[in-house]
Design a protein that fits this description.
Elements lengths: L4 E3 L2 E3 L5 E6 L8 E8 L6 E6 L8 E3 L7 E6 L4 E6 L8 E9 L6 H7 L3 E2 L3 E5 L2
Parallel strand pairs: 2-11
Antiparallel strand pairs: 1-3, 3-8, 4-5, 4-9, 5-6, 7-8, 9-10, 9-11
Length: about 130
């Protein structure tokens, strides 16, 4: 049983930045699309951003609420996915989860950001507050 591990969460003031990382030692993520979801207190989990495998062009999808502020990327040499979050707002507060799905099962990155993947990390807390 392999696991995804997120890191990089924390407490930040409004307008600040954080970079989340997602990695695993149990799989080569080259052939997995990577996605980030978040869940705020009392709300459902929502897709934030997803990225296809590099060999397919690495296309990306962003939720409207984060467009222009968040950037998803991947470094296959480091077996890691990233979510750079800038201009953070209090409404970005929540637990952020990494998820992956095999390229063979992926339809579109937009669909992945609705349905999620088939492996999930345990999450990292992001709190935006003054």
């Amino acid at each position: 049983q392999w696991q995804l591990v997120e890191s990089g969460g924390g407490l930040v003031q409004p307008g600040g930045s954080l970079r989340l990382s997602c990695t695993t030692s149990g799989r080569n993520l080259d052939y997995y699309a990577i996605g980030w979801f978040r869940q705020a207190p009392g709300k459902e989990r929502e897709g934030v951003s997803c990225i296809d495998i590099s060999r397919s062009g690495g296309s990306t999808y962003y939720a409207d609420s984060v467009k222009g502020r968040f950037t998803i990327s991947r470094d296959d040499a480091k077996n890691t996915g990233y979510l750079q979050m800038n201009s953070l707002k209090p409404e970005d507060t929540g637990v952020y989860y990494c998820t992956v799905v095999s390229w063979s099962l992926l339809t579109t990155v937009q669909a992945m950001c609705v349905q999620g993947g088939d492996h999930w990390g345990s999450g990292t807390q992001v709190t935006v507050s003054s």
